[in-house]
Amino acid sequence: MNAVTVGFGAQTATTTLQRFVRFVRGSGSLSVADKVYSIAGFLTIVTMFLLVMSVQCVRLQTNYRHMQIDSASAAVNIGRVNALIYAIVMESRGIYMSTEPAKVKQFADELVKCSGELTAVMMRWGQTVHPDDLEQFEAFKQRVMQFIDFRLELVRRGLEISPAAAREWDDNQANRTVRSKLNADLEALQRSYDKRAREADQLADENRYAAWYLFMLGLAALVLAAINVLVMRDSVVGRLSDIAQATDRIAAGDIKSEVPHLMRHDEIGHLAQHAALP
Question: Which residues cross the membrane (predicted)?
Answer without folding.
Answer: 36-58, 210-231
